[in-house]
Amino acid sequence: MGKVVVRFPPEASGYLHIGHAKAALLNQHYQVTFKGKLIMRFDDTNPEKEKEDFEKVILEDVSMLNIKPDQFTYTSDHFDTIMKFAENLIKEGRAYVDDTPPEQMKQDREQRIESKNRSNSVEKNLHMWEDMKKGTDYGQTCCLRAKIDMNSNNGCMRDPTIYRCKNEAHPRTGTKYKIYPTYDFACPIVDSVEGVTHALRTTEYHDRDEQFYWFIDALGIRKPYIWEYSRLNLNNTVLSKRKLTWFVDQGLVDGWDDPRFPTVRGVLRRGMTVEGLKQFIAAQGGSRSVVNMEWDKIWAFNKKLRAICKKVIDPVAPRFTALLQDEAVVVNVPEAQEEEKHVAKHPKNADVGTKSVWYGPKVLIDGADAETLSEGEMVTFINWGNLNIIKINRNAQGKIVSLDAKLNLANKDYKKTTKITWLAETAQAPFTPAICVNYEHLITKPVLGRDEDFKTFVNRNSKQEECMLGDPCLKDLKKGDIIQLQRRGFYICDQPYEPVSPYSCKESPCILIYIPDGHTKEMPTSGSKEKSKASTTKKTVSAETCEAIPATDVGLPSTPPASASNPLELFQKVAAQGDVVRDLKVKKAPKSEVDAAVQHLLSLKTDYKQMTGQEYKPGNPPAKLCAPPTLSGSSIGTDGRSLYDKVSQQGEVVRKLKSEKAPKDQVDAAVKTLLALKTEYKEKTGQEYKPGVPPALAEPPTLTSDVDLYNKVTEQGDRVRKLKAEKAAKDQVDAAVKTLLALKAEYKEKTGQEYKPGNPPVLSHPTEPTSDVDLYNKVTEQGDRVRKLKAEKAPKDQVDAAVKTLLTLKAEYKEKIGQEYKPGNSPSSFQPLNPTSDVELYNKVTEQGDRVRKLKAEKAPKEEVDKAVKQLLSLKSEYKEKTGQEYKPGTPPTPASQTLTPAVQADSGTHLSDAEATALFNKITTQGDEVRKLKSEKAPKDKIDAAVNELLQLKAKYKTLTGTDYKPVTTEVHDKEKKKQDKSEKLSKSDKQNKSAKSGDINKKKNLPEDIEAVDSGEPVEGQGPKKQTRLGLETAKEENLSDWYSQVITKSEMIEYYDVSGCYVLRPWAFAIWEAIKDFFDAEIKKLGVQNCYFPMFVSQAALEKEKSHIADFAPEVAWVTRSGKTELAEPIAVRPTSETVMYPAYAKWVQSHRDLPLKLNQWCNVVRWEFKHPQPFLRTREFLWQEGHTAFATYEEAAEEVLQILDLYARVYEELLAIPVVKGRKTEKEKFAGGDYTTTIEAFISASGRAIQGATSHHLGQNFSKMFEIVFEDPKRPGEKQFAFQNSWGLTTRSIGVMTMVHGDNMGLVLPPRVASVQVIIIPCGITNALSEEDKEALMNKCNQYLQRLLNAGVRTQADLRDNYSPGWKFNHWELKGVPIRLEVGPRDMKKTQFVAVRRDTGEKLTLPEKDAEIKLKSLLEEIQANLYNKASKDLKENMAVAKTMEEFQKELDSGKIVQIPFCGEIECEDWIKKTTAREQDLEPGAPSMGAKSLCIPFSPLCKLQSGEMCISGKEPAKFCTLFGRSY
Fold first, then answer.
1. Is 1112 helix (H, G, I), strand (E, B) or coil?
2. Cβ-count burial of 1158 within 10 angstroms (0-12 exposed, 13-18 middle, 19+ buried)?
3. By three-state DSSP, how is residue 378 classified?
4. In this structure, are strands 510-514 and 432-439 parallel, antiparallel, or unpaired?
């Protein structure tokens, strides 16, 4: 604290705008937060731009923002120092003087061509430098350039100019200097000299950061830290001082404080408050995301915060009335008496005060209100009461001139009446003349393109004034007062009313500026009752209605316009009418004329929209007209293009001359040439020159199809992107972009639609595919394209377009084939499969798959497994090539003649009619239903057998006649689910046990069909009671897609549930039990060390959190803040703890007074919140997680250092003894250590499935850093009267450990739990329950299961019995395997007879038959074996994947093979950054994935290798200090 120094360096060349305000306020924020120092430095390096008047203004603006710098400086204070540094660079050969003309220098830099002066000698450079210092004619043609790298991809590093010669006086130094440094050179020097620690710069300077640090290093001066933030970009305005100055010089605004200007003074004058502006900028913060923001955002903030907010203003802003002067209508109320009353200025807040309201027989209301009233209507006059409208008086033209009304004050029913505002006309209180001013945007286009001239989008009618008859009380307003004009909105008084001046004999009206509130909803102004009706009418106003108005009244041609024959003609009419309206407003024409002209304009716009289907936009003619027009004659086309290029080049010349402020005669000559070229271009081509719209050739090369043109656009787009990525020369990029735009225009003209990536043109008359197979393949290819786009996270519009094409193709396929498209099931136009060879090949694939699974289950040598897998893949490839479809388990190849409807062709060649086949198909279906019904009713066995026998005979007959097996259509989905489940049961090696039942078990019938087996095995079948169908097993293999596998494991094993707040998850009991096991073990162990548990609040005040800013900087982006209580804004935001140092250490400072109070050892089990914005993963990276955090304080370093390692050993035991995960213990590098600590020790685990390491837990020694910060001191008995700072540690372990355990041990059947943390160590499942089993035997089996349960619980084995009767044993096996239970205990009737049981290990799948009497001893021993086996397997995995490398080549090779590597390392942070950058490859979708650069994991306490004497770091730059473990990491 107190060490941070920041600076705000404005240039005194204009007023501060809100972009500068953001910079100033952000710097002040860090000044206040860190109790640091803020320097305000005027950047006066350019004498041409510096003006002392602006300095004064800027200081006033800074004062208005309540910013109080600690020091004021000027860059010119350091001119001598900067000059000496420049001369040093010359003498060292790092800078040279260059007399290359500026334009040529610019081109040379773009083309990376070295200057002829680059190789000049030092002596020659010093001689030329002297000419520059003297300001000679030759010196003024020179500049000083830094000699950096002309081949750099960063243009800022290509020998930038650092000094220029300007022979003119400086506002502060006069004529002392003839040379002045550039800002880029002066800034790093002055930042370093003035002690700036953090230089805040916008991201637009990012490319210059490398240059900034080059100057620092080259000059050997102290290095400030650059903190980047995004520039504040606002729509519909400009923030360039040059452009703002143009508005002022042109007289388009009132001055720099014009309310339309984005200057600080402008927005404050318009009603923005300093507090609102500060809070808006604070909300933007230091984010680096560049966004274009609507003005609505800033005004909405202003409304919401402090001063101008309805919540605050509404109760305090006094309410007044004002009527449009030209539209007021008299209401005669003869019985009303002229009188004055005092009413509240605010109806709901008497504290605002009262105002005088006059009543009388003649009152005025708004004309718009008068138009809404009808005779006989009762109307509520606000602050008076109800009046009845007796008569409405109109003139000859039908306009209301007055109303007659009668008081009805006794009637207090105001619910359904029209409410209007009014003013009484009385000599006692004359109206206050007022002008209401409403401002619109200065720029009509929200975001200007880089090459667009802002002057073409200037809104020259952005100020609207309305003359008002104001409430008499408006005379008392003062400048800056905020009021509400009833039914109009909030206004700020810009100029108070002034009575008649003795000099001008005129009174000055009260000027009120409308304050925007950030929304577009209109206030309920006069006539609001009819607004919706009027807006509807406006849309349907016809041209005839407009033409009925006399032209002389509206400033239009006297003859009515002929209807436009084409969109262009109509477009031009709208533009012309817009000019008429603007002209009338400029001339201050009568309102009736302006209104009529506006009405005609709206009518034309409506016609335009109806004709073109799009809104009228100035400068954007109808789409068809935007395409480059075809020229007649190829020679004209060629010449036109050449002439077009000449105009473009001459335009560049003009712009360049203007930017360089060339002499006026030069500019005029260039402009004259440009105009001549444009005239020639128009004569030649018949059209105006338009930038970016080159003339098209008369006969462009005809493309063979729309698709060819589409592909050309795509290729050209790729070419443009490639050029930009390679940072090619601007003219190359521009030329490529120009070609791209021309192709896009041609594409639009040809197809009638815009080019969209990923959305090729749909043929209006698609050619018929040569066969159904072609169409099938098209669908397949488009599906692959969609999947690829999604995998690459392509933009949503691209994905949507591709999906749309896919759906179109699928619809076409269905219409043509008569069936839905199904992947892997090509249409019947395929050649019929060879039943013998194809089925034979299918069986070979199946057998080889079984062989691979068997080898893996038997833990066969890796090379043997690899060989088998290779053969399997070869067979699958052959199968796909032969059949045209992927191999799918349980789905043998289908002959072409087979469909889902009954087949009608017999193997013998005889034919069965469709009717006969269908009848036989239906008979089988009916008989199948009969069998299921008998079984559900538990009918006698002989009856069931007879029904089954009949079913089998019918199926055999069906197969004989049709040549295909019967397949029930309605159970297709169920069949797939069953096959998946059958496969899982095979993998669990439990199918034999599931089938071991009594001789009456129907599953023993070898020829029983699939659907009958499904019913018998207890599988859930449609119509078979309350049995659930679930997608129980995993659908993704761990080795194929680790991310999907992990997500499925943690959800299907019931560890977590997703939550509606991203990055937060529900920990279900299955996962929380693991955390409890870890907690119980660790808590008991730390208590042996004398640690006590406690709890501190989760909320942290802003002041407390930011007290340790050097430490909290790492957490700052992740801190979550509470800002509101209900609907009330908190006075100060409160943080949710990201860590607890700031919460706990102030209390430590109170509790520790003497050495007797030490050691202080506290721990808390709690949650923390870190609002991660990276890719969240349950357990591994979440926004809220559970942890324990220990914080201890000691009198001596030795005690603290000893505890660091004691805790680290306990963490290692948690992982190794409980979770069965081996870890590497070590010390973090300087780069990776805990921010604010002395050193960090860590345990690192390894996940071989991803080839990435993961930090398991850390134990930090904080030294005395935090005790000094928080004043944790004690009196040392060895040094009486002397205070000593405590030595501190902190250490933590999180629920991340559960995720690590899942990743390390889990397999393709689900979770694998180490027994010591499993909440259920043994699951008991009864087997062999069939229909033939008597109720007595079933009850005995259940009792036996309960006996095992009780015995094991008594023996201390965590056990559960699954006795649910609506799930089969196979389903239960899968369920508990997925949940990772270490042992499954199976017991059936046979086992009971033999007094034995079967134990199945989850880790290996091995089945053991064990005697009943030894159940407790055997199972406890088996649990320990499983624990040891899991650890040994993971330990072997770690050893095989931890390598040693001595060179970068070896390191990269081992890293890319998915290993973690120990390398010689110097320990320098810069070197570690270099290693990470060097080892990175093209980034994957998820940070940290296999292409991420390697980072240091730890310096192992027990390294695999020892450093040799004189061994160099792997970078080859510095001597190695440690053998350090590096790898890709989570």
1. helix
2. buried
3. strand
4. parallel
Half-sphere exposure of 1211 (CA within 13 A, CB side): 32
CA 872 to chain centre: 43
Helix (H), strand (E) counts: the chain: 46, 50
Mean pLDDT of 862-890: 80
Report the chain's mean pLDDT, rounded to a whole number: 81
Q: Which two tokens stand for residue 521?
A: 């909803």
Sequence-separated (6 or more) residues with CB below 8 Å from residue 368: 324, 327, 525, 526, 527
Report pLDDT digits (tens) over 289-339: 666 777 777 776 665 553 444 444 445 678 999 999 988 999 999 999 999
Q: Who contacts 778 (Cβ-Cβ below 8 Å, separation ≥6)?
A: 769, 809
Strands 1407-1411 and 1396-1401: antiparallel
Can you state the percent helix, strand and coil of the chain, rounding each to 5? 45, 20, 40
First to last CA, the chain: 32
Q: Which residue has 């169409």 as its token pair?
A: 775
- Which has the minimum average pLDDT: 345-354, 387-396, 1447-1456? 345-354
Burial per residue of 420-435, b for 16 or more beta-carbon CB atoms within 10 angstroms, e otherwise: bbbbbbbeebebbbbb
Name the token pair of 496. Answer: 């108070």
Give the residue among 332, 439, 433 at the shortest CA–CA distance from 388: 332
- The pLDDT of 1169-1191, averaged and rounded, is 85
Among the listed residues 164, 171, 176, 226, the one whose alpha carbon sits nearest the alpha carbon of residue 196: 226
The predicted-structure confidence for 1467-1509, as pLDDT tens digits, reads as follows: 999 999 999 988 886 444 344 445 578 999 999 999 998 898 8
Cβ pair 147, 94 in contact under 8 A: yes
Which helix (H) or strand (E) segment is 1390 a member of? helix 1389-1393
Burial state string for 1413-1449 with b = 16 or more CB within 10 A and e = fewer than 16: eebeebbbebbeebbeebbebbeebbeebbbebeebe
Beta-carbon count within 10 A of 1280 CB: 7
Residue in 798, 788, 793, 785 with CA at minimum distance from that of residue 756: 798
CA-nearest of 926, 1015, 921 to 967 is 921
Q: 194 phi and psi, to 5 degrees? A: -85, 0
Question: Helical H runs in 97-146?
Answer: 102-111, 122-134
**Contact between residue 146 and residue 215 where contact means Cβ atoms under 8 Å apart:** yes
The set of residues, in sequence order, having a beta carbon less than 8 Å from that of 293 and lying 6+ positions away, is: 232, 233, 234, 235
| pLDDT score for 182 | 94
- Identify residue 120 by its one-letter amino acid code: N
Residue 1137 and residue 1167 in contact, taking contact as beta carbons nearer than 8 Å: no
Residue 970 scores a pLDDT above 80: no
Structure tokens at 486: 């009833």
Checking if the pLDDT of 1158 tops 90, the result is: yes
Task: Report the C-alpha gap between 357 and 337 in whole angstroms.
Answer: 13
Q: Decide: 416 and 439 in contact? Cβ < 8 Å.
A: no
Tokens of 1202: 């000893």
Structure tokens at 305: 């915060």
Quote the CA–CA distance of 640 and 645 in Å, as a whole number: 9
Whole-number Cα distances in Å, 1411 to 1357, 1363, 1396, 1497: 17, 22, 4, 49
Q: What is the dihedral of CA 542, 543, 545, 550, to 10 degrees?
A: 160
Q: Are 1255 and 1227 in contact (CB under 8 A)?
A: no
**DSSP conformation class of 9:** -
DSSP-assigned beta bridge partners for residue 228: 201
- Say what the pTM is: 0.43
- Going by the DSSP 8-state scheme, the letter that residue 1458 receives in this structure is T
Residues in contact with 702: Cβ distance below 8 Å, sequence separation at least 6, in sequence order: none
- Residues 572, 573, 576, 581, Cα dihedral to 10°: -140
- Of 167, 209, 192, 179, the closest CA to residue 95 belongs to 179
